[in-house]
Amino acid sequence: VCSSDLGGGKTVSTLTALDRLSVVEDIYPVLVLAPLRVARSTWPEEVTKWAHLGGLRVSVITGTPKQRQRAFDTPADVYTTNYDNLGWLCSQVPEGEWPFKTVVADEFTRLKSFRLRQGGSRAAALGKVAHTAVSRFMVKTPPLRRWTAEQKPGP
After folding, report:
1. Which residues contact 112 (CB under 8 A, 6 or more apart)?
2. CA pair distance 72, 81, nearest whole angstrom
3. How many whole angstroms separate alpha carbon 81 and alpha carbon 35?
4. What is the pLDDT of residues 17-64, one digit of tens each?
5. Residue 129 to residue 135: CA distance in whole angstroms
6. What is the rounded distance in angstroms from the CA atom of residue 43 to the CA atom of residue 59?
7. Which end of the chain has fewer CB atoms at under 10 Å, N or C?
8. What is the pLDDT of residues 90-124, one digit of tens each?
9. Is 87:121 a contact under the CB 8 Å cutoff?
């Protein structure tokens, strides 16, 4: 999902796509990886704003280890967490028991080292499960940068 503007409807579009897809496929539970503020506020708030999403249960996996564990243990359709907690989350799941059928990477540039052989710790943690346990991987891009005439890169 891509939009050039903040507030362009990327989150609600993604949630709507997930909701519609769930009619024909078993896609839940979904893990949303996002920057902390977005994971903590934006995703849960979008579900409450739109009537057609009212049936979705969201659990926010942030905070202290105890708070994260409580949120992880709470039954939900969508779990949101920030990229820095990805290593912790992966360490909580026994090998071969990854519970998330779908992963959404919000501002996926945070995983930019995913394909590199010596990728970062976030990418490495996700890489251990992404190719074997995740049925669907969706990305949500950050807003496109707008260049002024003075900032625009040369030819």
Report:
1. 120, 123
2. 10
3. 8
4. 999 999 999 999 999 999 999 999 999 999 999 999 999 999 999 999
5. 10
6. 10
7. C
8. 889 888 888 999 889 888 766 665 555 444 777 77
9. yes
